[in-house]
Amino acid sequence: MRNIFMVVFALLCFSAKAQKPAAATEVKFTIADPSPADILYFPINAPKVKDGEVVKPVIKIIYSRPQKKGREIFGVLEQYGKVWRFGANESTEIRFFKKVTIGGKKIKAGIYSLFAIPNKDKWTIIINKQTDKWGAFTYDQSLDVTRVDVPVRILSKPVEYFSLTFTPTPTGTNLVAGWDKVQVELPITF
C-alpha cells in the first residue's frame, strides 16, 4: 500500500511540473493608425438596444478619419476637381439596409463606396458599386450609381478630424461631412 501511495505521489508531482505553462513570448502589435476607423449609423443609436427594443439601422458607414494636423486640406492636400476617397485609407463604405433616394436616384439596399470630388464652392458626392478598395486609386466611374452636387458651407472653426454625422429630416436624413473649415450635406430620403 505504501508503494502505491509513493507511486501516486510521484506521478502527481511529475504531472504538476509537466503542466507548468511555457514562458510567454511577447507579441509585437502594429502601431495605431494615425487615421482611426469609425462607424456611423442612422439612426444614430442603431443598432443599440433602447428600452429593451432593438433600433434597426437604415444606413451604416465605415470610414477612416484623417487629421488636419495644421495642414490646408481642400485645394492643397486634397486637390480640387480630383476624386477623393471621402476619408483615409480604404474607400469609405456605405450600406443601405433598405431602398433610399439620393439626388432623385432610387438606390436599392446594399453596400457601396462613397467618393467625392471637392471643389471650392461645391462637391460632387459619388455613390459607387466598387467596395473593398484602397483609396481612390482604382476608382471606376463606369460603376457610379449616382453623382450629386452639393454646396460647400465654410465653417468659422476648423474640424481637426474628418467627421461624418446624420441630421434627421422629415423625409429621411442628411449625411453631413466636415473637415478643416468645410462642411457639406447630402440629402437622403427613404
Main beta-sheet strand count, sense and barrel state = 6 strands, antiparallel
State the distance separating the first and last CA atoms: 83 Å
Number of helices, counting only DSSP H or I runs of 4 residues or more: 1
Please give the number of β-strands: 12
The unreliable regions are none
User: Could you report the average pLDDT, rounded to the nearest whole number?
Assistant: 90
Radius of gyration: 26 Å
With strands numbered from the N-terminus, the spatial order across the biggest sheet is: 1-4-5-8-9-10
Helix/strand class = mainly beta
The secondary-structure element order is: HEEEEEEEEEEEE
- The oligomerization state is single chain
Outline: globular
Helix content: under 10%
